[in-house]
Amino acid sequence: MDDSNIVELYLERSESAIKETSSRYGRYCKTIAMNILNDVLDAEECVNDTYLKLWKCIPPKKPSPLSTYIGRITRNLSLDRYEYKKAQKRNSEFDLLLSEVESWISAPMLETEYEEGKITHILNEFLYSLDDEAQTIFVHRYYFSYSIKDIAKMHVMSESKVTSMLFRARNKLRAKFEGEDVKI
Amino acid sequence: MKATDMYREVGTINDDIIKKAEEYKTPKKKKAHWRVITITAACIGLMLCGSYFCLNGYLSNRGVIVKTEYVETESYACSSIPSKEEQAAMQKANGLNMVMDRLRTDWYSGAYTSGTDMIVLLCEDTAEHRAIVCEKMKTNSITFKACKYSTVYLAKIFWAIEADQEKMLIKDMRSKFVSIKDNRVVVYLLDEHDVDTITSVKKYDELGGAIEFRVRKNRHEPN
């Protein structure tokens, strides 16, 4: 069943919509959630919450493409859960990822609030400026939250090469943010 | 702005960028590196071998001379009928050939007659071999000639071609026979440029030069 048929099921309020979503995107969502939470039970709960949120959002929304929409929901829900559980236990891999994200946030940015969409615009510009491989690696790391090890395996390269590519990308992004003089 | 806020912002990047990363597939070319090199090397090797053998076949075929025999169709050429003495000599020669064939020696190359004279070909012309022949024929009036190929060798070529013809591996051949006088296997082709048949036949001649190719043409037919 393709994306448009699944969306149709949601619009018709058919209960098989969730079943079909699960069979098509269950594994995809679970990977994203696991990359952030590093806990099977938490990840499964997040995936179930994703289906519930989809049920609530469609209609009125008719997302296209469905995969990125579902991915974003899972990602945000997983992050919420991560922050909620952060005090109790730590996910060292995701903590490392967040410390990397922090590295491209300059000191003035920490104190500032940005106008809506501004950061997204800069991020998009920055990503389009990268070559295909660097762009994909960046998204795999900071959107899908894959570990360095997994990315190295996926791209058939050494972990040190992935690390150095991400390091260069972060520095470039940081310079871009500083150059844009973004006010938060 | 905290790291988690920035992380959320990363979640708002354009769909096409996400989609591209989502659909990314691990390249297989690096894994198959050595396999590709091996296959490529094998292919190149095969090509080289193939071209070598083709070239070899082509060059060896270039050395083949196909004799043309002109046949009279408007009148029949009649050879003279052998006399009783000549027929008797021919029978003796045939008898010797049959006896020596059974012995399967690698030095005997056949007997034939010229008029009433008996001529025996030996590819190993020694006194010992001559003595054996004379003893079998019970006469010393035999003309011995040295030649290159034994009847065993020529027969081996003949039967190998025969077997290929039975298996339909060689189709475009008119006829063949072992010519004792010429010490050759004579093969009549349908087409003097039939390289395939020449190659198929020549492969059985390990010593080389034991097969003579001929074509028959009607003298009165336009070319």
Topology, pairings included?
The complex is a heterodimer of chains A (184) and B (223).
Chain A: H1 3-11, H2 16-37, H3 40-57, H4 66-85, H5 92-103, H6 107-111, H7 118-129, H8 132-142, H9 148-154, H10 159-180
Chain B: H1 3-10, H2 15-22, H3 33-62, E1 66-71, H4 84-103, E2 108-114, E3 117-122, H5 127-137, E4 143-146, H6 151-166, E5 173-179, E6 184-189, H7 195-202, E7 211-218
Parallel strand pairs in B: 1-7, 3-4, 6-7
Antiparallel strand pairs in B: 2-3, 5-6
| Structural class assignment of chain B | alpha/beta
Instruction: Return Rg of chain A in Å.
Output: 18 Å
- Sketch the topology of chain A as an H/E string, one letter per element: HHHHHHHHHH
Distance between the termini of chain B: 98 Å
What percent strand of chain A? under 5%
User: Total helix count of chain A?
Assistant: 10
- DSSP summary: helix tally of chain B: 7
Radius of gyration of chain B: 34 Å
Q: Give the helix/strand class of chain A.
A: mainly alpha
How is the main sheet of chain B built? Answer: 4 strands, mixed
According to DSSP, the number of beta strands of chain B is: 7
Helix content of chain B: 40-55%
Q: Work out the oligomeric state of the chains in this entry.
A: heterodimer
> Ends of chain A: how far apart?
43 Å
How many extended strands of chain A? 0
What is the average of the pLDDT values of chain B? Answer: 82
3D shape of chain A: globular
Shape, principal axes of CA atoms of chain B: elongated
Which consecutive residue ranges of chain A, at least 5 long each, have pLDDT under 50? none
Order of helices and strands of chain B: HHHEHEEHEHEEHE
